[in-house]
C-alpha cells in the first residue's frame, strides 16, 4: 500500500476530518510503540500500522469486517426510528468510516450480525443469488410438534411469494425451541414461515451464517469483534 501522512491515516480510519486528526496528533492523543507522535506529516506505510488514540489500541485496516452479537431492541439501520441503532454499540470511528450492517435482523431478533465498510463485500453478501445458509433458533409460543417441523421442511406458502418456501434443515431443540436453516433472506422470513406452519415465534436469534458460528466467539449480547480473513472464508457458499 502507498505511504501516507499520519493525519491521512487517522482520517481514513474514521478519527475525524483531516483538520481534526491533525489537531488530535498535535494534542498528543496519538502514540506509537509507547511514544507520543506529534508530527502529523510523518509519512508511513499504513498497512498493519499499530497506534493508540487516547490510550485505545488500533491497527490500520483498509476495511473492517465486524461481528456483532446483536441484543434485542436495537435497529439494524443507520437512521433508526424507534430504538437505538446498531452503530451506537460500536466505536464512533466506525460510524465515521461508514460501517453498515450486512443485511438486516428485526429489531427484536438477537445474534449474529455482520457489519462492514467494504461496499463490495456488503453487496456480495446481501445478493439474493448468494445461497449461504443462515441458522436461527426460534422460541415458539406453543410446544413444538413434529408436524410443525415437518411443515417447515416441506415448505409453506407465504403472502406475495409465488412458490412455497422450505427450510433447508429444521430440528426440534427442546419443548419450545427449533433450529431452522434458511438459504434465502426474505422479509421476516422465519417468523412468517412459523405462522404459516401454524405456530408463532416468541423470540428469534441468528446463530450462524454459512460455517461461521456465533458461539465460537464468546461475545455477550452487545459485544463485537473483528472478523479476520479465516473467518470470512467460512462465509463462502459450499459447493
Ligand atoms: N427472519 C425473521 O423473521 N426475522 C429476522 O430478523 C431474521 C429472519
What is the total tally of β strands?
15
CATH topology (level 3) name of the largest domain = Alpha-Beta Plaits
The percentage helix is: 10-25%
Which ions, cofactors or small ligands are bound in this entry? uracil
Secondary-structure content class: alpha+beta
The count of helical stretches stands at 7
Number of domains: 3
- Which residues form runs of ≥5 with pLDDT under 50? none
The profile of the biggest β sheet is:
9 strands, mixed
Write the element-wise H/E pattern from the N-terminal end onward: EHHEEEEEEHEEHEHEEHEEEH
Strand content: 25-35%
Mean pLDDT: 95
Can you tell me about this structure?
The protein is elongated. Strand 5 and strand 6 form a beta hairpin. It has helices at 6-12, 18-26, 92-96, 119-126, 146-154, 189-196, 229-232; strands at 4-5, 30-32, 35-36, 43-44, 50-53, 56-59, 65-70, 100-101, 110-116, 134-140, 169-174, 177-182, 201-209, 212-213, 224-226. Strands 7, 8, 9, 10, 11, 12, 13, 14 and 15 form a nine-stranded mixed β-sheet that branches. A four-stranded antiparallel β-sheet has the order 3-2-5-6, with no helix packed on it. It is α+β, with helices and mostly antiparallel strands and 239 residues long. Helix 1 (6-12) crosses helix 2 (18-26). The chain has three domains: 4-59, Structural Genomics Hypothetical 15.5 Kd Protein In mrcA-pckA Intergenic Region, Chain A (Roll), CATH 3.10.290; 65-128 and 212-235, Alpha-Beta Plaits, CATH 3.30.70; 133-209, 2-Layer Sandwich (Alpha-Beta Plaits), CATH 3.30.70. The structure holds uracil. Uracil binds at residues 105-106, 109, 188-191, 204.
Amino acid at each position: 500500500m502507498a505511504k501516507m501522512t499520519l493525519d491521512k491515516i487517522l482520517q481514513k480510519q474514521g478519527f475525524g476530518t483531516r483538520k481534526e486528526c491533525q489537531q488530535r496528533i498535535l494534542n498528543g492523543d496519538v502514540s506509537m510503540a509507547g511514544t507520543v507522535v506529534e508530527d502529523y506529516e510523518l509519512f508511513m506505510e499504513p498497512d498493519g500500522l499499530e497506534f493508540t488514540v487516547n490510550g485505545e489500541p488500533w491497527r490500520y485496516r483498509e476495511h473492517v469486517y465486524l461481528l456483532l452479537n446483536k441484543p434485542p431492541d436495537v435497529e439494524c439501520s443507520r437512521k433508526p426510528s424507534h430504538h437505538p441503532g446498531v452503530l451506537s454499540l460500536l466505536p464512533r470511528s466506525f460510524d465515521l468510516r461508514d460501517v453498515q450492517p450486512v443485511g438486516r435482523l428485526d429489531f427484536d431478533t438477537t445474534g449474529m450480525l455482520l457489519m462492514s465498510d467494504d461496499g463490495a463485500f456488503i453487496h456480495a453478501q446481501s445478493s439474493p443469488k448468494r445461497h449461504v445458509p443462515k441458522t436461527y433458533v426460534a422460541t415458539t409460543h406453543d410446544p413444538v410438534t413434529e408436524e410443525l417441523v415437518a411443515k417447515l421442511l416441506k415448505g409453506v406458502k407465504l403472502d406475495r411469494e409465488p412458490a412455497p418456501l422450505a427450510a433447508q434443515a429444521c430440528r426440534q431443540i427442546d419443548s419450545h425451541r427449533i433450529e431452522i436453516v434458511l438459504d434465502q433472506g426474505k422479509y421476516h422470513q422465519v417468523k412468517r414461515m412459523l405462522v404459516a406452519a401454524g405456530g408463532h415465534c416468541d423470540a428469534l436469534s441468528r446463530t450462524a451464517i454459512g460455517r461461521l458460528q456465533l458461539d465460537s466467539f464468546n461475545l455477550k449480547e452487545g459485544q463485537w469483534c473483528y472478523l479476520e480473513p479465516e473467518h470470512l472464508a467460512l462465509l463462502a457458499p459450499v459447493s
